[in-house]
Amino acid sequence: DLTSDRAALLSLRSAVGGRTLFWPTAQQNPCNWSGVQCDTTLNRVTALHLPGVSLSGQLPLGIFGNLTRLRTISLRFNSLSGPLPSDLSSCIGLRNLYLQGNRFSGALPEILFTSLRDLVRLDLAANNFSGEISNGFNNFTRLRTLYLENNKFSGSLPELEIPKLEQFNVSFNNLNGSVPKSLRSKPKESFAGNSLCGSPLDRLCPSKEDVPPAISVDLRRNRKKKNGLSGGAIAGIVIGSVLGLVVLLALLFFLCRKRRSSLKNGATKLTDAEFLGEMQLTGSNGFSLDAPATSSMMGGGNKKLVFLRNSSAIFDLEDLLRASAEVLGKGTFGTAYKAVLEGGMMMLAVKRLKDVTDSEAEFREKIEFVGAMDHQNLVPLKAYYYNKDEKLLVYDYMPMGSLSALLHGSIPSPSLISNNVV
Ligand SMILES: Nc1ncnc2c1ncn2[C@@H]1O[C@H](COP(=O)(O)OP(=O)(O)OP(=O)(O)O)[C@@H](O)[C@H]1O
User: What range(s) does the Protein kinase domain occupy (predicted)?
Assistant: First the structure.
């Protein structure tokens, strides 16, 4: 009733100020207040005209929810802000809503599209409204004016099949896409200031047909480039990598086996039969010959390792055969090996003689003679071994290499070189 309409108007007055402050509130009947119109038959407020009267602030809920018989609201060209109150939806007989030229913001409440079905004029221009332009405008079947220009509406325009729509403007928003068919009859100025395209605008919408052939080929090529390698190429790379890895592993395996077997062979060869060539001692220049060498026989038999001079029998033939061996080089009389006794307790040079034609007695005599020689540049013979198949000479291992290495390399001390070559 009018009493509740009056109360709602007073709420509005206290919320927005401006000219409403001049309302003679002492009067119980609000129908004489400036800007307020009533239907005397209904005894209700039916229109509120407050254009350009310095209203400011937000429209709170609880005002329009009570002014339910309003047919016209005109609050244009004020400084009202904030979102539209959703209880505007209570004004179901509203025909004209003029809110242009304010600072309203936010999206339009969706409920308005289902309740204000009698709207004829809707002017929301020049505010800060945002969000998409709702398909719900199609519910306003009596609408003749729809002004939404100069806001921040975004997205694309929906098809608006509003039969009586005469005045339409959505210019200067953030709209994009093409102008829908139903609106193509509107003047192009109604769509200006957006990213819209298509009729009635001069800007054509890009489509497959619109792209010139040369550009479309380029686009396709770019797309291909962006896609990177083809599936086949990737599969090829993967298979190639796997094969490469397999070959590499096989090679490593083969090399390891080869190394192991060569070490094994080196050690085994010590047991192979070879013969001692005739030893040609080149005289006594620089050499001193001791008294006949005293030798100790390992194990008592003459097929054992024989230690010469003062060398004590701290290892035996078994130790020697079990030792890991590595070829040091080949000389005239055979091959020399570096033998590391088990546990690394001793490193020896074992010279394995080949082509020995001397009888055992002759061999022993000559080796005892060699073993008795003493000279600062000569590695003393530590022990020897003789049997039919194998003749070995055992020396201490000289870790600093040969005379050749001394002459051509950087080894300083002659006392540490293998001097059997000297
Ligand atoms: N006691 C040792 N300690 C370390 N390396 C040695 C020892 N004896 C020999 N060699 C090394 O073993 C390799 C072969 O030596 P070997 O005495 O069998 O022949 P060579 O003296 O080089 O030649 P040739 O017998 O013709 O005079 C040489 O590189 C040598 O330096």
Answer: 322-422
